[in-house]
Amino acid sequence: MSGRTIMIQGTASSVGKSLVATALCRIWARRGLRVAPFKAQNMALNSAATPDGGEIGRAQWAQAEAARVRPHVDMNPILLKPETTSASQVVVLGRSIGSMHFREYHRRKPELREVVGAALDRLRAAYDLVVIEGAGSPAEVNLKDRDLVNMWVAARGDAPVVLVTDIERGGALAALVGTLELLDPDERRRVGALVVNKFRGDPTLFADGVSFLEARCGVRVAGVVPHLADHGIAPEDSLDLDTTRQLAGARDIAIVKLPRLSNFDEFDALPGARWIDRPSQIGDAALVILPGTKCTADDLAWLRRAGLAGALVERATGGGPILGICGGYQMLGQRILDPDGVESREPDVAGLGLLPVVTRFERAKVTDAVRLRLGDGVPLCDAVGGREVAGYEIHCGRVERRGARPFGVVVRRGDAISEEPEGAIAGAVAGTLVHGLFQDPLIQTGVGGQPGTRDLYEALADHFEAALDMAHLEKLAGL
Questions:
Q1: Above 70 in pLDDT, residue 338?
Q2: Which residues does the annotation mark as catalytic?
């Protein structure tokens, strides 16, 4: 028998679909169900490597973590990583199939539907329940014939739909009513619950709104969810980043907000982290982090235009600690070579020259879960030398170290034992291709000055379970 399904759709992007889906994964997992997340198509620069070396959206990786299961490429069969305003790198079942203009991508949607459907079938065969997340809005009538992620998936997986709106942005009643009005009759019949998210104040004050919606729409309002600040779960889009977040008593960590920033959620465990985009914002930061990026050469050019390149060189000259991760590490090197145009039209770009390394881009993409044994000299972390931490690599650039001591040693790549020197350290400047280091409690404490907060999923689940009509949602899902 195939596993049950339930689908979380929204009246717009950023209304909280991912958070609702993540919370439900943990709620039902801790009730003893085998739960898997699923999102047919994810457009995001935040990604992660699965244990078997595939690449999926970071949101589905987090949802799998919330569900206490191993992340798998079937949970996010299609990942779009924007490169320009009209083209993206397309990752299918964990592997890049190259860059495509959106017109070409739309032409290939019939074959991609087969990929999506098969992935969903495999999950349903392996799990009791699949919590499916939609994207954007199901009421985009101009895109309905090419739908790959909303009502087409609901029909393919025979999933009841929970429609979520964000009351904080205003117009929540109109958004719910309008979305339902624009759905076809068979699509509308799938919507079995409405959720009003991000309510500030006493939810009982929205009782008249609940009555109106249920009378007008004929659909149960299954929850008015209070606004949840500092939940610690990363947004899919860097536009949602809180650039001012910083907690008292923590070390001041300045992270450069690159235009094509990727994997930004890995810094959420640093309580003193703040995002910067101007030299004047560096101030007296204890550490400056140059994070990952989808477009290394382009973001390096932006760094120079913004004056941040010169500020980083000046900081390094004065002994100020700098840490580069993945693309940020590559920028800190001597040169970035891309003769085949894998990521850029620039075949040879000068780096910042702060680390003796050279990067060469290749078409084959590395997507591995790794275990890294740290060396000495990790910025602000004198006590971590020799410690082994879990992380992941996602990159096309191969970095050749020319004289610097390594950041650490990769002792496991996927399921294979290894002994690869990795990264580089020169003075107070360090770089690594490995993401996810700040999930380690000792590194959180060393770099951040105080321990991070875990388990975030339990707090998230408690918050949503208290606000949602779980009996109604379980009845919808047939549990």
A1: yes
A2: 326, 435
Residue 290 near residue 312, CB atoms below 8 Å: yes
Cβ atoms 329, 431 nearer than 8 A: yes
Both tokens of residue 302? 């932006």
Domain CATH number, residue 158: 3.40.50.300
Q: Which residue has the tokens 């919590």?
A: 131
Number of domains in the chain: 2
SS3 content of the chain, % helix, strand, coil (to 5): 35, 30, 35
Give pLDDT tens digits for 150-178: 999 999 999 999 999 999 888 899 999 99
CB atoms within 10 A of CB 141: 11
Q: Based on the domain organization, do 468 and 439 belong to the same domain? A: no
CATH number at residue 446: 3.40.50.880
Give CA–CA dist 445/401, Å, rounded: 29
Q: Domain range holding 284?
A: 238-452
Under the banding of pLDDT at 50, 70 and 90, the label for residue 248 is very low
In a shared domain, residues 328 and 377: yes
The DSSP line for 61-102 is HHHHHHHTS---GGGSSEEEEESSSSEEEEEETTEEEEEEEH
Q: Are 55 and 37 in contact (CB under 8 A)?
A: no
**Euclidean distance between CA atoms 63 and 25, whole angstroms:** 6
pLDDT interval class at 434 (50, 70, 90) = very high
Give the tens place of pLDDT for each residue, 391-404. Answer: 899 999 999 998 88
Q: Give the position of tokens 């959720």.
A: 195
Q: Which residue has the tokens 């300045």?
A: 254
Three-class SS state of 58: helix
Give the pLDDT of residue 357: 95
CB 37 within 8 A of CB 193: no
Whether 162 and 308 share a structural domain: no
Instruction: Look at strands 348-350 and 335-337 and give their pairing.
Output: antiparallel
Instruction: State the residue for tokens 């779960």.
Output: 233
Same domain, 351 and 403: yes
Count of residues making up the chain: 479
What is the chain's alpha carbon radius of gyration, rounded to the nearest angstrom? 23
